[in-house]
Amino acid sequence: MSPTSDRPVPGGEFALAGTTVARMGYGAMQLEKLSAHPDVAASVLQSALDAGVNHLDTAEFYGAGFVNDVIGRVVDDRDDVVIATKVGATTDSDGPLPLRAAQRPEELRASVEDNLRSLRRDHLDLVYLRRLDVGPGLSAEGDQAVPLDDQLDVMTSLRDAGMIGAVGLSAITTDTLRRALPVGIAAVQNAYSLVERYFEDMLRLTLAEGIAWVPFFPLGGGFPRYPKVTEQPAVRAAAERLDASPAQVGLAWLLQRTPNTLIIPGTSHAAHLAENLAAVDVALDPTTLAELDDLVPVGGTGIEWMPRSA
Ligand SMILES: NC(=O)c1ccc[n+]([C@@H]2O[C@H](COP(=O)([O-])OP(=O)(O)OC[C@H]3O[C@@H](n4cnc5c(N)ncnc54)[C@H](OP(=O)(O)O)[C@@H]3O)[C@@H](O)[C@H]2O)c1
Within a domain: residue 10? Predict the structure, then answer.
């Protein structure tokens, strides 16, 4: 299915889960900051859709169902928008963190049903199995350390039953991806940005396999301990030369990295959204590109992303 012809296609196109989507998407996690202001959250999301974004990234555990509820209401019955969601964790209102691991097969099924309800869909376009192979965040302990094959069995049976359109993987190692390839993987999400490239090998593997690469933390994320694209002096200098913003330089760099890279920058602010969307018009000249390519070592530091277990 193609986007309707009168809509813009920010960043060019890629076929994701059976639909042609704009490579500039929207990560909805930051909307959880607006849980006291659902109308503002709906308006930010509507602005993204109006600009031609038709790939949204979410999870039931973003704002304890709040983000999915906003998406369900705003997207309504549009069938040209790919909503990608995740299973593998669930809201934990009483715990030390707002979410806990939910990796067991029955928990994956229950989470798919929760997402169907809160997103108001009769099927989910793309569901990432959010593993705990690598950071950040939760780790798999006790009965939450579930063999990959058991989880893939659930995901593929839900796909066969028509509840899921396509299966993605997140927070994985390249070994996990290689082992999962035979079942058909539509997209992979790990942390990756201009300033953190630990998963360069994963990006190359997805490119070789024709799988969408959808890096999370494309600007460095909202948590303080990760390197921020907008704070790097070389990025700021490049932005000034190009009459662009540092965030735009970071997003433009991702878009040119490989044709299978789809970006989902997250924001709760209309002004940041407009700025991020305009990154598709920022052209990186060869000198700037070479400088940015050399900014951090390929492979990054890896400190936050090392596999959790042997
Ligand atoms: N698979 C996974 O495990 C996983 C993990 C994390 C995230 N994700 C997905 O990936 C998406 C993107 O990641 P993310 O939202 O964590 O991180 P991000 O897109 O790298 O950065 C978001 C942070 O940058 C700020 N920001 C956004 N645009 C900006 C701009 N133009 N200038 C300055 N600051 C700006 C946001 O604050 P404001 O709200 O103030 O703009 C927020 O603090 C998420 O929304 C989520 O859908 C997936």
Answer: no
Report phi then psi at 94, rounded to 5: -100, -5
Q: Give domain status of residue 244, yes or no.
A: yes
Number of domains in the chain: 1
Rounded CA-CA distance 198/196 in Å is: 6
Active site residues: 62
Q: Please give the number of the atom of ligand 1 that sits closest to the Cα of 228.
A: 20
Which single residue is written with the structure tokens 């602005």? 47
Mean pLDDT (10-residue bins), the chain, 310 residues: 56 94 98 98 98 97 97 95 98 90 98 98 97 89 96 98 98 97 98 94 97 97 89 96 98 96 98 98 95 81 63
Q: How far is CA 52 from its chain centroid? A: 17
> Which domain CATH number covers 132?
3.20.20.100
Residue 45, amino acid: L
| 177 in Cβ contact with 128 (< 8 Å) | no
Per-residue confidence (pLDDT) for residue 1, from 0 to 100: 38
Structure tokens at 208: 């070789």
Ligand 1: nearest atom to the Cα of 272: 31
Give CA angle at 174 (168, 179), nearest 5°: 70
With tokens 């999400």, the residue in question is 189
Closest residue CA from atom 11 of ligand 1: 27
